[in-house]
Amino acid sequence: MSRSVRVVWEDALTAYDFGPGHPLAPVRVELTMALARELGVLDAVELAGCAPATDDELALVHRRDYIEAVRRVSATGRPDRAAGLGTEDNPAFAGVHEASALIAGATLAAARAVWTGEAEHAANVAGGLHHAMPGTASGFCVYNDPAVAIGWLLSQGASRVAYVDVDVHHGDGVQAMFHDDPRVLTVSLHESPRTLFPGTGFPHETGAEGTAVNVALPAGCGDGGWLRAFHAVVPPLLREFAPEVLVTQHGCDSHALDPLAHLMLSLDGQRTAYAALHELAHETAGGRWIVTGGGGYELVQVVPRAWTHLLAEVSGHPLDPATATPQGWRQLVRERTGETPPLSMTDGRKPEFTDLSAGYDPADPVDRAILATRNAVFPFHGLDPIP
């Protein structure tokens, strides 16, 4: 389905590094790009570099005093707890502004390519830092690159932008920045805030006009329940909203092996979600699709394979899940991490789900989560919450 695809990448994007032992290790994107390259995924796309986001571009969604504070930390390496830098989640480090601005610049480059028509789809797997707030760092995120890109699209005249976030954590920063802006539909599918950071993302958080949408899924939810919830909420809302551009965040920390969360998706379920979003980009947004990475803390078994599948889907040439991982990449994994690499691009699952239209089970926690969301937001959009 894809006509022209741009993947934004600079080796310097791995400078976004909170230090040894931090869960957000840059080796995850290094291994992703290496795997995508060895499997020929990058042969089907245009690779492009990027420049750091300027202060004016960051100020589309971030406070000026916060940007100045990040710059001060960047110059000295000294913490500024008022700015959220110097915490366990967001350690201060010299060069933090430059590293963070480059990630925002990469997602901006993807947005520019799609908005100007230079590319139909564009991706930045190093991006997706969705927790950063207007005036503080949060949850491993310093500058909120998806929100910067959305803010830029609005500044260029976009009147309807949809953002769909499939990270296991609530996309709280993006929601906060556009909570009362009817031009932006934010949809987040995540583990319930009762059991996971950041403690927000309940269905009743709807924004002024129902444009903040939250599907809070129970811990233990696997492929079938997750896909049932996705299809019960996301397609009808995107069809009704009819965005000019679709922006998606693809944190793969919903995987069963992720050490920081409690959903139970497989690589195969995640790949199925990528395909569904690709179809929706064409159906509802004229093919204009901006893609970012996000969370994901199983650095070898999950992130590189998940996001290589993502890039392959974006390119229009999905990989056969039975594809073997290349020997050269396996050796790189051993050298860079000392871990045993996966042998193929699948977890061996065949994700299936039953559509909500076939019936609703009030005793099922996934169905209760779905109905809570539909009841909260569907009436704002003229949609019937009852399946």
UniProtKB/TrEMBL annotation:
One of its GO terms (molecular function) is histone deacetylase activity. GO terms for biological process: acetoin catabolic process; epigenetic regulation of gene expression. Pathway: Ketone degradation; acetoin degradation. Coiled coil: none annotated. It holds the Pfam family Hist_deacetyl. It comes from the Bacteria. Keywords: Acetoin catabolism. InterPro entries: AcuC, HDACs, His_deacetylse_dom, His_deacetylse_dom_sf, Ureohydrolase_dom_sf. Residues 22-313 form the Histone deacetylase domain. PANTHER family: HISTONE DEACETYLASE HDAC1, HISTONE DEACETYLASE HDAC1-RELATED. Belongs to the histone deacetylase family. This is Acetoin utilization protein AcuC. It comes from Planomonospora sphaerica.
